[in-house]
Structures are given as C-alpha cells and as structure tokens.
What does this fold into?
Amino acid sequence: MQQPICLFDSGIGGLTVLKKLATNFPFENYIYLADLARVPFGDRSREDINNIVNEMFDWLMKFNPKMVIMACNTSSAVFDFKSQEFKSKINIPVYGMVESCAKEIAQSKYKKVSVWATKLAANSNIYKKTIQNINPHIGTEEIACPKLVPMIEDLSFNFSDREEIIKEYLNMTSQDSEALILGCTHYPHITNTLLKHTKMDIIDPADSLIKELESSLKKINNPELKRNISLYTTAQTEKLEKFSRLYLCEIYKTSLINLSKVFA
It folds into this structure.
C-alpha cells in the first residue's frame, strides 16, 4: 500500500483521471506530474513526445511506484510503452488511456463511434486501429478538436461561447455515431454540456481504466490509512494549485497534498 501510483500529463487534464482513481481507490498514495513547461503535447512531434515521456518516466521511477499511468491520450497514442526495450527499462505495470477503453468499445453493441482528441492523437488513428484490430465491424472516426483545451482552461470563457465551440465539433461528427469517446483527459469537463446537445453516449476512457485496475487495486476500507497526494509540475505551480483545488474538490480538502516544482 505504501508504493505510490504515479500519473503524468502535459498539464491539468490528467487531474480528471487522478480524481476518479482517488475516488475509487481512496487509500492509495498518488504522485501526479504535470509538464506545464512543455504543454500542449497535442501540437508537438512524435519525436518530442517520445523524448519528453522518457524523461518523465525516468524522473517518476525514483519514487518506486507500483504502476505508472499515462494520464494523457496524446502520450498514450504515440509512445510505445509496450516495446521490449521500454519494458526492460521499466519493469512495472504501465497503463495508457486508450487500450482499456478500445477493448470495451470493441466488445460493445456499437456499430459506429466517434473520438474527439488533440491533433496529434487524432492523426495517429490510435482508437480506430485498436478498436478495429479487435472488432473490424465497428466504424470509428477521430476528430481533432484544437479549440477545446484552451476553452476548458480559460475559466473566463462565457457559457454561450463554450456552447458554440462544442456545437462546431458536434457538426463535424457523424450523425450516425452512437457514442463519443472523450479522447483527451480535459474533455470530461464538458460532459454536462455535451449531454444537452447530443444523444450519443459519452465515454470517458478513465472509467474503462478503473474497471481494468479493479483486479489489481483493492478498495481497502481502513480509516487508519492516510492518503497522500503529491502534485509536481515543471512550471506554473500556481496554475496547478488553482486547478487542482477546483477539480479535486473534496479530495483536495481531505488529503495531504504537496505541491512542488521540478525539472525542466
């Protein structure tokens, strides 16, 4: 129980994953690394992402984690964490945001699904490849939504402007899609607005990940165990603190949380 679960993202999006983990597995220790010095990842090259992700893994390994979660769809889409070379270097379980969700979709009733993602993740077609590798009968489209992350992070955006941007991407989405996969960890923040404007099922890949982890992480109910959450960032400590207080809500208030600035 003492070994932490480590997560990383380019910024604050992965806090949605941390919140669901901490809610479902409340007595684990968590370490979250936000690379706010090099955000956004979705506009970078594959080579940049590979170098950055390797650096983040190297730094996180000093905490002797029980597992590492890439709480970033862009990293999950382009970084090959299943290669033999990487596995020999990182000898612990590593999870991305794509595979568990894609497996669940491939075994579902859906005939067609859409994915909203960053430009790099959408262009990789990682969801389509993974889903259709299991079930080639499910149609899958991936749509780049570059306006969503800046909109979500800008808390001064008025509601009508937010709705117009969301409607813009809904108009780009096939009308016969039965489900919309939120292929960026920022996007769960717009779920309520999406539900007002579409009949598609809204899929958060973090929920599939939680189901997969239930076999290895126990929901131990021991009030004597105190949860420790450490938040690290490569820049903009104030931003990470602001959004973690906003997004983690009661978890932030009831956990011992440390905020630190690290490399880069």
Q: What stands out?
A: The two ends are 30 Å apart (CA to CA). The CA atoms of residues 112 and 176 lie 7 Å apart.
